[in-house]
Amino acid sequence: MAHVLDVSSARLQFPALKSGFMFADNAGGSQITQSSIDLIVDYLANTNVQLGADYSVSISSTQRVFSAAEHARELFGAEDKDEIIFGPSSTANLENLARGMEGSIEAGDEFIITGEHEANCGSWKKLAERRGAVIKYWHSTPTNPNNPYSLSLKVEDLLPLVSAKTRIVAFTATSNLLGSVVPVQEITKALRAEAAAKGAKKVEVSIDCVAYAPHRRMDVRAWDIDFCVFSFYKVYAPHISAMYVRAPALATSVSSIVHHFLRAEGPWKLQPGGPGYETVYGTTSVIPYLLSLTPAHNLDATFAAIAAHETKLVTALLAYLTAPEQAARGLCVVGVEEPGLSRVPTVSFVVVGERPMRSKDIVRVFDERGGIGIRYGHFYAYTLASLLPPPVDPEEGAVRVSLVHYNTLEEVETIISVFKEIFA
Ligand SMILES: Cc1ncc(COP(=O)(O)O)c(C=O)c1O
């Protein structure tokens, strides 16, 4: 039975939402639950000692920090908590992973990357430069011939890039600019078949789930991927990231030095200068929070309810943004224009044509009015933003409204009313 999300009770779990401010920049970072804050405070107040000693408080502290790896394992759908690594951010996690892989990359190896967020592109570009590997871009292409900005990643554009030398393929499960949900399992299956047919010996797949994890359930095993990251500050907890490295990859592709940092004594060992233990412990609120969202008390039901509610939000927003009056005004959605399950409520747009408007100026109206947080820019998807056709100033990028399940239809109506004033 499908469960309907009780948005009002969900909202009560977030202290920041009581302020009345409308948080509509959630792809930049979500709000944090009271339960996560309580865990952090409790850790600092009661178990803030060095891990690994034999006295009772240290035992309790160690158990608390270790338990976070099991929670992250479940969120990833991974097999073993030893495949989980914590780090200060997804960008840092992927950078350290790429550094650890130097020994397993040869000159002439090919990496296929997208133009999406730099976290899962920049680390591979730098690794390619250090090792003499070749970068190939899998670019997003328009879906609607009448809107050159209606971009999405398509498997038919990926497969011709695959060759016997393909070594790494890195893409986002959801773009933080386009808002699309990419069918990771389908793509990876097609990619692996193509790579096998062309004689590639070892292909490792790296998926950025940072903009996906707040909206859909991850399943690294079903997806048949090797590396995956998401950031807890986008899923109602503090700023810290978890990375999945599939056991065989950890054993064969990552150098022992970095392996030592990655996994020496437990999940917190990943990064020198990495996250505080209280922050790691603060992430153990995420699963209980997600389970609290429906009476079914399971993650599949929660994510189905989240997807259903968010689809209502994005349908209302896109109905306004894609209406003929807006098209006549020169407004183009950046990303897929159709609402539905293959989209999350992260909606970007530009206003071009005879009466163009700067993204900055549109967002300024919201800022001056106060009470609503949205933003504009390239959102660190530099390559994608700089290739938008026809070009827009990449620093200026697109206007982005990004919602999550705690946003309401009333909030969407308010955002639309501000747009109406701007485009009048
Ligand atoms: C799609 C995507 N990937 C990666 C990141 C980077 O995450 P972190 O800030 O944890 O490095 C972000 C952050 O906004 C993102 O939206």
Automatic annotation (TrEMBL):
Molecular function terms, GO-annotated: transferase activity
Record carries keyword Methyltransferase: no
Coiled-coil residue spans: none
Xref: InterPro entries: Aminotrans_V_dom, PyrdxlP-dep_Trfase, PyrdxlP-dep_Trfase_major, PyrdxlP-dep_Trfase_small
Keyword vocabulary terms for this entry: Transferase
Name this protein carries in UniProt: Pyridoxal phosphate-dependent transferase
Residues in Aminotransferase class V domain copies: 23-414
